[in-house]
Write a structure and sequence with these properties.
It is a single chain. With 116 residues, the protein is an alpha+beta fold. It has one domain: Nucleotidyltransferase, domain 5 (2-Layer Sandwich). Helix content is 38%, strand content 20%. The protein is built from 3 helices and 4 strands. Strands 3-2-1-4 form a 4-stranded mixed beta sheet, covered by helices on one side. Helix 2 packs parallel to helix 3. The longest helix has 18 residues. The protein is globular, with a radius of gyration of 14 Å. The N and C termini lie far apart (31 Å). The relative contact order is 0.20.
Length: 116
Amino acid sequence: MSKLERKKRIQRSYRDSVHGTNLRPRLSVFRSNKEIYAQIINDDLGITLASSSSRDKQFEKFSGSKLDLSKEVGKLIAKKAMDAGIKKIGFDRNGYLYHGHIKSLAEGAREQGLNF
């Protein structure tokens, strides 16, 4: 089994347990080699409620490590969620291990008050 097949299998099984609803939307994370993206999704309606990424304008002049940038993206997505009235979410790590950038983003979101 290749790395990609393993990730897809984990992603499918994890998506069965984490489903975004009105009361508890899903925070989905995507990580590339350069950037990190986060979206809060309501799967029942099929809409994105809030999104944030390391490509946002406010992070253009960011000087720090990628881990620090991930934490700031987590704080920003949490702030946008709080402004939209969302306090509880389901965390969808999208097949990635809960380590490094993914963990940093989650910690940043928790610091701002999101519960998951």
